Amino acid sequence: NRVWRLVTEFATKNTEYSTVTPKKLSKPEKDLRRAIHTAIKDVTEDLEGDYQFNTAVSELMKLSNALTDASCQDSPVYAAGIETLVLLLAPFAPHIAEELWQEIGHTDSVHLQNWSQYDSDALVANEMTLVIQVMGKTRGTIQVPAQSDKQTLEKYARESEVAERYLQGKEIKKVIVVPGKLVNFVIGR
């Protein structure tokens, strides 16, 4: 029902859209594009290997949620996401997918379309959310470049407003950096 509503609302608002140019995307568009290509990759892998239908359907739900929450619903990326959702849904719900495919303006069958291919470049995050902790308690988050090493992550964390607020005038005994996840400051009492 949610997927039906999502696609039909899109179909009533949009009649045409342009192609996606990855180099000119906003951050919300990049995030949505990453969610789309992650879904394509994961659903494809689930269907090619052990036929893990439950995890494939879970990925479709994640994509549906990403589309529902997207702030860029007038974007070509959003349109591509709706189309991808319907294409990936076809093996699981063929009749509904066919109806939705026609609803978004296609005249040929969804089952005659090529399977979506993921773009490995779209799967790479340029930024990540770094959690900043003081004495094991989360005090805030900051956005940092995704490929940062331990020293760089510590530097960003020390220079953040979060660190300024919670570490001002305190002696830092130890810094624990978990790359890709968090920086924890251990302070003297």
Give your account of this protein's structure.
By secondary structure, the chain is α+β, with helices and mostly antiparallel strands. It has helices spanning 2-13, 27-48, 53-69, 76-89, 94-103, 150-159, 161-167; strands at 127-134, 137-145, 172-178, 182-187. 49% of the residues lie in helices and 16% in strands. A four-stranded mixed β-sheet has the order 2-1-4-3, with helices on one face. It is elongated and about 70 Å long. The model has no long low-confidence stretch (mean pLDDT 91).
Kindly summarize this structure in a few lines.
The chain is an alpha+beta fold. It has helices spanning about 1-15, 25-50, 55-70, 75-90, 95-105, 150-160, 160-165; strands at about 125-135, 135-145, 170-180, 180-185.
Topology summary:
Blueprint: H1 2-13, H2 27-48, H3 53-69, H4 76-89, H5 94-103, E1 127-134, E2 137-145, H6 150-159, H7 161-167, E3 172-178, E4 182-187
Helix pairs in contact: 2-3, 2-4, 3-4, 4-5
Strand runs, count: 4
Overall pLDDT: 91
Question: Could you say which structural class the secondary elements and strand pairing correspond to?
Answer: alpha+beta
> What is the annotated CATH architecture of the largest domain?
Orthogonal Bundle
Percent of residues in beta strands? 15-25%
Number of helices, where a helix is a run of at least 4 consecutive DSSP H or I residues: 7
- CATH fold name of the largest domain, please? Isoleucyl-tRNA Synthetase, Domain 1
| Major beta sheet, strand line-up | 2-1-4-3
Q: What gross morphology would you assign?
A: elongated
Unreliable stretches, pLDDT < 50, 5 or more residues? none
According to CATH, what is the class of the largest domain? Mainly Alpha
| Overall number of structural domains | 2
The level of helicity is 40-55%
